[in-house]
Design a protein that fits this description.
By secondary structure, the protein is α/β, with parallel strands linked by helices. It has two domains: 2-215, 4-Layer Sandwich (Metallo-beta-lactamase, Chain A), CATH 3.60.15; 227-279, no CATH class. It is 35% helix and 20% strand. The chain contains eight helices and 14 strands. Helix 5 runs antiparallel to helix 6 (205-226) and helix 7 packs across helix 8. The longest helix is centred in the last third of the chain and has 22 residues, at 205-226. The radius of gyration is 20 Å and the shape is elongated. The relative contact order is 0.11. The structure holds zinc ion. Residues 74, 76, 79, 140, 159 line the site of zinc ion.
């Protein structure tokens, strides 16, 4: 489906994800971007045969300029899982940020393919009349990237900004501090449209980014307020902050809270005490 000239959605698996805790979540987006000389694919969805066939049929019917790269924005299987089959059927090189390379090669592809193109912050991909600028956007994962078609004001945000929910920041793999800085950086680009990793285009980037930044700041305040009465476990914090949460989503909530606590710890505002967190 054409979203605007030279930018197509190759999103398949139109049915939302059926598994808890992601039930009802829209499928991962895949975008084809092209100028007069070359095209690139931004993400390739799950490793799924029907999805792969739909994508290759779309490419065949459209006949875009040669595929110069299959860009994997980050290591998660709903974004890079389908890249291996597309790499094999098209011969196009696989590209990612250096900080995602190992997780993708080993974790996603089981050592069966290599990332041969490492994308750096600020690097520009000239597609002929359309330039894609690489924006290192850590937070969701360390080497997560966004891509910016400056001439169009089109920003491909993958899971850093989604139309449908806030972004999961898992402790260990993600960083809430990085994520906050990345949201500010994306805001500074003054995009006209954000094409997200899940869900439809976001036509009011400034208000969406402001809302996400505000949400993070409110969560920080809530954490500090919940610790005002004394030390709390993560479970106690969750019960105070996410009252009435369905059981299937408790683990995700705990991961968000721990990532938030890690940031506050690094800021010197809280400390960990055995199983409990306290104000510093
Ligand atoms: Zn992700």
């Amino acid at each position: 489906m054409e979203l605007e000239p030279g930018i197509h959605s190759l999103t398949t698996g139109q049915l939302p994800i059926g598994r808890e805790p992601f039930k009802g979540f829209p499928p991962p987006n895949s975008y084809l971007v092209f100028g007069t000389d070359a095209s690139v694919l931004i993400d390739a969805g799950w490793d799924d045969t029907a999805d792969h066939e739909a994508r290759t049929a779309y490419l065949r019917d459209l006949g875009p300029p040669p595929l110069a790269a299959i860009i994997i924005t980050h290591r998660h299987p709903d974004h890079g899982g389908g890249a291996l089959a597309l790499h094999r059927s098209t011969g196009a090189p696989l590209a990612s940020h250096a900080l995602e390379r190992e997780a993708i090669e080993r974790g996603l592809f089981g050592g069966e393919a290599r990332i041969t193109r490492e994308l750096r912050d600020g690097e520009e991909l000239d597609l002929g009349g359309l330039t894609l600028e690489v924006v290192h956007a850590p937070g969701h994962t360390p080497g997560c990237i966004a891509l910016f078609a400056r001439e169009r004001g089109a920003l491909f945000t993958t899971d850093t900004v989604m139309g449908v929910s806030t972004t999961l920041i898992r402790p260990g793999e993600g960083s809430m501090a990085d994520y906050g800085r990345t949201l500010e950086r994306l805001r500074s680009l003054r995009a006209a449209t954000m094409y997200a990793g899940h869900g439809g285009p976001i036509t009011d980037p400034e208000s969406r980014l402001q809302a996400l930044i505000g949400h993070r700041q409110r969560r920080e305040t809530e954490l500090l307020d919940a610790l005002a009465g004394g030390p709390r476990t993560v479970q106690e914090l969750r019960e105070a902050i996410y009252a009435g949460l369905p059981a299937a989503r408790e683990r995700l909530a705990d991961q968000q809270l721990v990532s938030g606590l890690h940031k506050l710890r690094d800021d010197g505002r809280v400390r960990a005490d055995d199983e409990r967190w306290a104000r510093a």
